[in-house]
TrEMBL record:
Upper classification of the organism: Bacteria, Bacillati, Actinomycetota, Actinomycetes, Micromonosporales
Source species: Micromonospora citrea
All copies of domain Low molecular weight protein antigen 6 PH, residue ranges: 71-141
Protein name: PH domain-containing protein
Pfam families: bPH_6
InterPro entries: CFP-6_PH (IPR019692)
Length: 157
């Protein structure tokens, strides 16, 4: 591992699903909005232009909600790891990381911290199969490089 190597990992499958779902949601809400015309039934109300705009707006907000799930990312270098999940971001030096875990049956990988906490890394999802496994291996190599430097520094004193 070189001194300047940076690993950047993002999920692939969930991004494709979310972008497609967001597009479909906007189209469906737009089609519903165009069909909102005339009377609301036997009552006195009728659909107006504002109702149509509101329906398209709801579709856009729903699509933005889907796109939140494309936010996860993991970036790492020799100094530490930065994890951005759907909600929340963390920047950790390698000193606080005990290991990188990807347990069998787990939906995503996680960082095991020295305080016995687990930090999920939603960007490394089991649905991405081999791509996620390669990402975990790369993170483990960076972590092992850091551990070796610590051991080398301790032995050199």
């Amino acid at each position: 591992m070189s001194e300047t190597e940076t690993i950047s990992l993002r999920p692939r499958r969930i991004r494709v699903v979310c972008w497609a779902s967001a597009a479909v949601l906007v189209v469906v809400f737009s089609l519903v909005a165009t069909s909102l015309t005339g009377a609301t039934g036997n009552g006195y109300g009728s659909f107006q232009r504002g109702d149509q705009i509101a329906m398209v707006g709801l579709g856009v907000f729903g699509a933005l909600g889907f796109l939140l799930f494309t936010r996860p990312r993991v970036e790492a270098d020799v100094r530490g790891v930065r994890v951005r999940n759907v909600i929340g971001s963390y920047e950790l030096p390698w000193e606080v990381v005990r290991g990188v875990r990807f347990d069998r049956g787990a939906p995503w990988a996680s960082l095991e911290l020295h305080d016995d906490d687990l930090l999920p890394m939603v960007a490394l999802q089991a649905a991405d199969k081999e791509r996620a496994v390669e990402g975990v291996r790369a993170l483990r190599r960076l972590h092992q490089t850091h551990q070796a430097r610590l051991a080398q520094g301790a032995a050199g004193r």
